[in-house]
Amino acid sequence: MALRRNGRTAQYLISLAVSLAAITAGVSVYWSTPMIPKFHSHEAAIEITQEEASWVASLSSPGYVVGSLASSFVVDRFGRRAAIIGSAVPMAVGTIILQIATKAWMLYMTRLIWGFSTGIFMTVSFIYFVEIADKEIRGKLSVAIRFMFNFGSFLVVSVGSFVSYTTLNRMLIVLPIGHFVACWFIPETPHFYIKEGKVEAAEKSLQLLHGCKDQNSRLESLRSDVKKQTRRPGTFKELFTGEQYRRAIVIVIGIKTTQIMSGSLPIQQYAGLIIQESHADIPLSAALISFGAVRFVAGIISSYLVDKVGRRPLLIVTYICTGVTLIIVGIYFYFQEVVGIDIEASSPLRYIPFVGVFLSISLSTIGYDSLVYIIPAEIFPINVKSLAITYLNIYGGLMNFLAVKGFQNMRDWTGLYGVFWYFAAFALLGGTFSFFMAPETKGKSLREILIELQGDLYEEPEERKLNGTKGDVQNRGVKESCELTELACKNEENNRNSTGDS
After folding, report:
1. Cα distance between residue 473 and residue 163, in whole Å
2. How many CB atoms are closer than 10 A to CB 409?
3. What are phi and psi of 288, to 5 degrees?
4. Distance between CA atoms of residues 274 and 278, nearest Å
5. Within 13 A of 482's CA, how many CA atoms are on the CB side?
6. Which CATH number fits domain 241-443: 1.10.10.10, 1.20.1250.20, 3.40.50.720, 3.20.20.70?
7. Closest C-alpha to 203, from 222, 185, 184
8. What's the pLDDT tens digit per position in 60-114?
9. DSSP at 224
10. Where do the structural domains in the chain lie, given as residue ranges?
11. DSSP annotation of 310
């Protein structure tokens, strides 16, 4: 038991180190949230237009796409650890460019490079934790990444609302250095070592991560699972033509689409603008800080609930509740923009958008915004895991770009009420989809999850035939045994009858 506790301690310490790096990712993604109001009010050192500011806000997503694509090559060639550490390098490059930026295109470059780094880190980190963590705490450790990512967003919004553009940018220099140092001491996963044929290294990694002296059974089980999962190629054709992956593909695309189109990222990026349009008597800096704080607190709640309540109930409840909340916010803006009702400044109704955005950020962070990164890493086998998550992140990055860049266009076309009702429709759709399609992976080993999703397809046809043959032999053996037992009973009864007659 003491050895097991030591293993768990190692897992928690590794989680802390990688989660510290997630702060850098959160800062880079949400840097634009406090900066966009400064660009609009000409408080920044660079003069850019509103159109250019919208590009600054949205270009992190294309960079994320490229980073996710690069991660599929890095993670299987150099390992999970190398990919996580290496993602600090482009983050440092982007931060250096930001220090000398004098034109809008230089900000574009910074956002693209930051997005590239975040794409690598966020893709690989969830694979890393799924492979190193015990099944009882796998969800908790994975959510810790998102939790510290949210803390990074809270940090940059809180500080960025009170310091100048130049001061904030100079403060960011320390983050990629901290990322690199914190992750330098983490181990490689046993799965990668086994995949590369490095059995001794895998055994040492298992010893560190799980604290067991007798690693033979665990090691053999891991070797068997990795061998079974890697017997098929990890190619694009295999992923999209293999029947055993189809359910997993449908699940992750459905969850990813509804997560993005429910508007969590655009709402957070344009939260300041939404509060200004609501005419609520709330200081913008206070509103932005409260949104960052609620993401931080919601991340703590999510890390507790994910392994207590389970993935599937969290998905369903948070999607449905978010949809209802966004409908109410849309109704407020409908009466304001279409009906033309001017709500009095003293009326508490003016706080409906603030409360609605506050609740939607809370709910999405507790539920689907966190789980959309965990579930894909749990439901794909190792041969296509990095490839599947890479293509999913490419898809998600493109959709995020369209959602954030299209926010202003949709607002001009339909008004804010149309934007919120559009997001609400996808949130309700996400709840319905999760009810019918999402699996429950809480407390299950990766092997158990794959068997549940793939059924008989988890085994090769030859193995199924062999297992079927074994089953037939066993059934025949049982039948013959029963027949022999029945015959023996009859003989014994005849002997008793003969003795009685005598």
Report:
1. 76
2. 12
3. -65, -40
4. 6
5. 6
6. 1.20.1250.20
7. 222
8. 888 988 998 888 788 888 999 999 999 999 999 999 999 998 888 999 999 999 9
9. H
10. 1-186, 241-443
11. -
DSSP state of 191: H
Q: Is the dihedral of CA 65, 69, 72, 75 positive or negative?
A: negative
Question: Amino acid identity of 435?
Answer: F
CA distance 335 to 331: 6
d(CA 170, CA 181): 19
CA distance readout (Å), 175 to 33, 179, 233, 335: 18, 6, 38, 45
Q: At what angle do helices 216-230 and 382-414 cross, to 10 degrees?
A: 60
Whole-number Å distance between alpha carbons of 447 and 209: 19
Write out the DSSP string of 316-330.
HHHHHHHHHHHHHHH
pLDDT at 500: 46
- Give the DSSP letter string of 355-412: HHHHHHHHHHHHTHHHHHHHHHHHHS-HHHHHHHHHHHHHHHHHHHHHHHHHHHHHHH
Query: What span, in angstroms and rounded, lies between the C-alpha atoms of 370 and 376?
Result: 11
Q: Provide the pLDDT for residue 2.
A: 40
Q: Decide whether 1-186 matches 241-443 in CATH topology.
A: yes
**C-alpha to C-alpha distance for 272 and 57, rounded to whole angstroms:** 13
Fold of 1-186: Growth Hormone; Chain: A; (1.20.1250)
Kind and range of the H or E run holding 243: none
Task: Output the six-digit token pair for 341.
Answer: 């009702």
Question: Token match 């989660």: residue?
Answer: 19
Give which of 236, 219, 235 is closest to 227, Cα–Cα: 219
Rounded CA-CA distance 390/376 in Å is 10
Closest to 178 (Cα-Cα) out of 152, 139, 144, 153: 152
Of 346 and 451, the structure prediction assigns the larger pLDDT to 451
